[in-house]
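Before relying on records like the one below, remember that each one covers exactly one chain. Contacts with other chains, cofactors or solvent are not represented anywhere in the record.
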Amino acid sequence: MNSPSKIPLLHHSITPALLVLAAEEFHDIAPPVDYSLIPPWLVFVIAFVALSLLGLVVWLFARRRKPPVPPKLPREIALEELDRISREIERMSPYQFSIRVSDILRKYVTQQYGLPATRQTSIEFLTALAKVSPFSTEEKSLLEDFLNRCDLIKFARYEATNSDSELLLQEAIRFVKGGQLATV
């Protein structure tokens, strides 16, 4: 008999018959199984709609939280315009300056008091003010002086200077502030 040390090595190794049996037990890898009941495109549509609704809610909430800005009062508008024109006093001719300041003041009187200052001449306006007026005596006097100075520059072609323009500006600011002393 054969001694164990003399047994060929192939005798203990895998034989071709065993390889065939092993190959039959193993099969190819199957593709992944789709186990979702919802199609992938529907998931994307639902996510898009949900994010859009969330964005809309955030936008509406942010928009609602801001308090509405109250409209500016005619006095504030006039003071801003007078401040803006005061920076241009050196660059404008006194004639142009008097027209612009007069327009600002007339617009203020029209908006603040509902008087037709923009559709009347200075004389017509001052005559109407003498009859019925919401202004004090000092304000009437200030307005009359202002309009007379503007008319003198605009229509009589008075040779005005920058100091005349500054005086007009101070009178306009003083009138808009309600007769208080203007600080320019």
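The chain has eight helices and no strands.
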